[in-house]
Amino acid sequence: MVVLISGTGSNMAALLEASKDPDYGASIVAVGSDREGTPGIELAGGAGVPTFVVPFRAYTDRARWDAAMAERISGYRPDLVVSAGFMRILGPAVVGRHPAVNIHPALLPSFPGAHAVRDALAHGVRITGTTIHFLDEGVDSGPIIDQASVPVQDDDDESSLHERIKEVERKMLVDTVGRLAREGWTIDGRHVRFGRTEHSVADATYTKENR
Ligand code: GAR
After folding, report:
1. Domain 2-113+131-147+173-194 has CATH 1.10.3720.10
2. Dihedral class, residue 131 (left if φ above 0, else alpha if ψ from -120 to 50, else beta)
3. Which atom of ligand 1 is nearest to the CA of 104?
4. Which distant-in-sequence residues (6+ apart) come within 8 Å of 18 by Cβ?
5. What is the CA radius of gyration of the chain?
6. Fewest CB atoms within 10 Å of the CB: 58, 120, 137, 150?
7. Which tens digit of pLDDT belongs to each residue from 74-122?
């Protein structure tokens, strides 16, 4: 898998740790980012994993940046792209070419977008959580693979709540990615099932056109 990150990379680090076990079924061939010098990129590089950065601002428009991302990702020939704390929307060049999953710190379809934890707190929900889903070309809108809940405490602020969500999401991400790698998957409309059928991994790329 190629893992995409924008910041700390604690979810990526959890995948890196899990993939040390040969029975895990997946390994990280590269870690990519839209930002230079982030702790996650440093961490991956320090662990001997190839890294690449495609800075968003270096491109005149989103389509060119997306094409450059797709080019870099495809060079590693991944079976799966994992967006784990990647804060940019990937477009058709990436999503149309590779199966890709995203982890999001809220119970989708509630609170999509870049400020999910803040938005859930502001709304006053008592339970929030995390979602792992296949990427389509929308914002946090693709078919859901798994979710886990996290209760909101009265004295939570955005940071305390996000830290508890991240504890839960690291485990869910590791479990889910391992199962996808070992068992394969089938996407039927909005429903995702583990287990390979006549739809092979290569056919499972999910775009709005083949929904
Ligand atoms: C995670 O909570 C992830 O769900 C979130 O960013 C955090 C990254 O943490 N992603 C999004 O908000 C995407 N919209 P990490 O860098 O420590 O893995």
Report:
1. no
2. beta
3. 4
4. 24, 26, 174, 177, 178
5. 16
6. 58
7. 999 999 999 999 999 999 999 999 999 999 999 999 999 999 999 999 9
